[in-house]
Amino acid sequence: MKRPHQTQIKRENYSQIMDNLYLGGIRCKKILIENCHSAIAITDYDMGKPEWADNYVHYELCDTSTESVELVVNAIFGGIKFIEDNIQNGVLVYCGLGVSRSSTVVIAYIMKALKLSYEDAFKYVQQKRTCVRPNALFQKVLQNFRFDN
């Protein structure tokens, strides 16, 4: 079943969340974003690295509330590390629509980088990309995260 807001999302759009950090859907991988040379894909299966990406990582993750918590946590911590290692070259984080899986990783990064609670990091990201909405499981995982910087 489609989420009601999905029809309002332009799949080719991406949003700049902060300097050198972008969030979007799968079609963004075909867009050359100025000063962005790294990509994280969080999808059901790996569709290959974008042609423009010098650095790339894929995390296999389904957007369901029955997904393995271990896979969610691995994608979050792996994604944060990848962003930290590549932020100076620009990073695009994408999933199917740029709503749930990719926003989960970006929100976690914002929580750690800016030392924010889940609620404040969610609001920060939502101000930049209004369609973000991690599913119930991803929200629960993020609400339980505490980062010791």
From TrEMBL:
Species the sequence originates in: Hexamita inflata
Keyword Hydrolase: yes
Gene3D superfamilies, per database record: Protein tyrosine phosphatase superfamily
Annotated protein name in UniProt: Dual-specificity protein phosphatase
Residues covered by the Tyrosine-protein phosphatase domain: 13-149
InterPro entries the record matches: Dual-sp_phosphatase_cat-dom, Prot-tyrosine_phosphatase-like, Tyr_Pase_dom, TYR_PHOSPHATASE_DUAL_dom
Annotated GO CC locations: cytosol
PANTHER family linked: DUAL SPECIFICITY PROTEIN PHOSPHATASE, DUAL SPECIFICITY PROTEIN PHOSPHATASE DDB_G0269404-RELATED
The family this protein is said to belong to: Belongs to the protein-tyrosine phosphatase family. Non-receptor class dual specificity subfamily.
Pfam families the UniProt entry points to: DSPc
Residues spanning the membrane: none
CDD domains: DSP (cd14498)
UniProt-listed GO biological process terms: signal transduction
Keywords in alphabetical order: Hydrolase, Protein phosphatase
